[in-house]
Q: What sequence folds into this?
């Protein structure tokens, strides 16, 4: 039976990662409790933010709105003022770097086991459509020796990542994996997916190599800069280095869709949704401003005639109603993973 699991931030809440609305308060707390060195970082960040968005209090906005606003401004300003554009990319990377520290800690063994037991009771093989940029699913798989794959340009890419360090050490091979137990589609990118702003090529890194930000050289991120090793990007060093950026997409109406890899994630998601017999939503809130994602599920009942069972797992009954409304199907409601594991 073809099964799909759709996950959002509520899934990662099980390993204590924050929900979207909790990210900014958590960042503020972390910066305040860090050593003096964080003060300068905070100062620079707010200075840049106020320069572009003088009437918006950074600390009062949710992370997705912050990222969306900066991305949108980048689009507006790109052709008009290159200097301001690069200031914005600095700001964007500083925010991403702070976001990263809230979801980079290795989860406890027990919490990963809870998720493993859940995945096991859903059953393999399984297609996971994730709206999270963290690496919780990958960690559960590695911890429990479950084979898994990303999908790139409609090919499966085995979990063995590209090694893609500065010039001398890289490896372009891709690895086909015919029947992984988990196929992982990440519609909003991932902190271990990097792309080159010049040639738009995309690279997967190992989960241990996630979270590098070329413009953020201050505390606590300074260090490794990843360069694109495409021959045409290497030889154009004089016009600016082709630094690799993490591929992160804010859940807003306007997104960074220049990258074929992201289109592929949506295309493959739709194909899988068309054929699934069981679909389980877990901790995914299906926010209405995320129009492309909502459209993926809109009138699912007309896209897929084979589906036998749809389940929504979420402590919030409103989320259940929103999903039911969009897919135009009446799913089964389950309150928690614990209840799911005990249902039949
Ligand atoms: Zn490149």
A:
């Amino acid at each position: 039976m073809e099964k799909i699991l759709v996950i959002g931030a509520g899934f990662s809440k099980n390993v204590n990662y924050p929900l979207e609305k909790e990210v900014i308060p958590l960042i503020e707390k972390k910066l305040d409790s860090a050593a003096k060195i964080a003060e300068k970082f905070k100062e620079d960040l707010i200075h840049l933010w106020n320069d572009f968005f003088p009437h918006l209090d950074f600390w009062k906005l949710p992370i997705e709105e912050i990222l969306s606003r900066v991305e949108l401004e980048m689009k507006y300003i790109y052709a008009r003022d290159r200097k301001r554009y690069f200031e914005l990319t600095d700001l964007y990377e500083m925010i991403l770097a702070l976001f990263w520290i809230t979801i980079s800690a290795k989860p406890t063994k027990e919490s990963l086991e809870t998720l493993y037991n859940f995945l096991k009771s859903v059953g393999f093989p399984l297609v996971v459509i994730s709206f999270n940029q963290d690496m919780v699913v990958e960690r559960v798989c590695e911890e429990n020796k479950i084979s898994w794959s990303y999908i790139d340009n409609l090919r499966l890419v085995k979990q063995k990542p590209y090694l893609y360090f500065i010039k001398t050490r890289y490896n372009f091979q891709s690895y086909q994996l015919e029947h992984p137990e988990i196929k992982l589609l990440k519609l909003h990118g991932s902190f271990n997916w990097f792309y080159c702003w010049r040639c738009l090529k995309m690279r997967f890194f190992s989960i241990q190599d996630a979270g590098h930000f070329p413009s953020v050289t201050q505390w606590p991120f300074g260090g490794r800069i990843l360069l694109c090793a495409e021959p045409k990007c290497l030889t154009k060093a004089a016009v600016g280095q082709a630094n690799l950026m993490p591929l992160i997409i804010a859940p807003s109406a306007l997104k960074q869709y220049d990258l074929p890899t992201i289109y592929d994630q949506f295309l493959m998601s739709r194909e899988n949704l068309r054929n699934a017999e069981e679909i389980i939503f877990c901790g995914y809130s299906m926010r209405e401003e995320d129009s492309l994602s909502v459209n993926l599920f809109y009138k699912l009942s007309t896209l897929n005639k084979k589906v036998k069972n749809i389940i929504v797992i979420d402590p919030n009954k409103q989320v259940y109603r929103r999903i039911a409304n969009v897919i135009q199907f009446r799913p089964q409601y389950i309150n928690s993973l614990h209840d799911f594991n005990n249902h039949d």
